[in-house]
Write a structure and sequence with these properties.
Helices cover 40% and strands 36% of the residues. By secondary structure, it is α+β, with helices and mostly antiparallel strands. It has a domain of 112 residues: Alpha-Beta Plaits. The protein is elongated and about 80 Å long. It starts with a helix and ends with a strand.
Length: 240
């Protein structure tokens, strides 16, 4: 008799456990979203460099060159707050001596990347380019990017689309499985990120830009940046 009672107790316990597992079932789905944006920001970057055999003199020359170029922009009506120089480095330079058959000291080189970050509709973009092209003999890059305003504006849209994508997937799965989608159990959000950038038309040397400028009057018309794809993901779990 005791064996029968124990067996019945085990059966009841198993049924209760099964019911609890069924009630606590969850479905977890990842929602994804992408949005394409045409970059509004332009960065003109000039890599200033000077070289000298004396360390102190090299450092002073770099600062003087930077101050002179910044003054040139300001004198031509470029907003001073657009001009940024965020790093400054000096390194020892070596060269190979064929007679000694080894590397020998060849002075010091100071480098300061100077950047002017503007919007595509900034009326003095062409003037900035002309000043660089005509007065600065240094490596030069021009690139496009998303402004902070663009990133902030698209953030809410990315989240809305990702949540909807996750819900659509969850509803399709539960419908196919013959169960009902319950309340949300948890949400994990992945921050927005760039998954595709522009092609090589974005990063052009001053030489290639100059050739195109011969037939076009506006730097923003010559260069047409491709769209940048922003993406995010969100993981949502629902009770069943």
């Amino acid at each position: 008799m005791k064996r029968i009672i124990v067996s019945l107790a085990l059966i009841v316990f198993s049924l209760v456990t099964f019911a609890q597992n069924t009630e606590s079932g969850i479905i977890t789905v990842e929602g994804k979203s992408t949005v394409k944006l045409v970059p509004e920001e332009i960065s003109f970057t000039v890599n200033l460099s000077v070289k000298d055999s004396n360390y102190s003199r090299c450092a002073d020359m770099a600062v003087e060159k930077l101050a002179k170029i910044k003054a040139l922009f300001v004198e031509n009506g470029i907003d001073e707050d657009l001009i940024k120089a965020s790093s400054y480095s000096i390194r020892e330079v070596q060269r190979h001596d064929p007679q000694l058959r080894k590397m020998v000291f060849d002075g010091y080189e100071a480098n300061i990347p100077l950047t002017l970050k503007t919007q595509r509709d900034y009326e003095k973009n062409d003037l900035i380019f002309s000043i660089i092209k005509d007065n600065v003999e240094s490596n030069f890059n021009l690139s496009f990017g998303l402004s902070e305003e663009q990133r902030n504006a698209v953030k809410e849209k990315l989240i809305d689309l990702a949540v909807q994508d996750a819900r659509d997937k969850a509803e399709i799965i539960t419908k196919s499985a013959g169960v009902k989608l319950g309340t949300i159990k948890s949400i994990q959000y992945g921050d927005q990120r760039t998954i595709a950038r522009m092609n090589d038309r974005e990063l052009l040397s001053s030489g290639s830009i100059a050739m195109k400028m011969q037939s076009e009057s506006s730097i923003t018309e010559v260069l047409s940046p491709d769209e940048i794809i922003m993406a995010t993901n969100i993981i949502i779990s629902w009770n069943l």
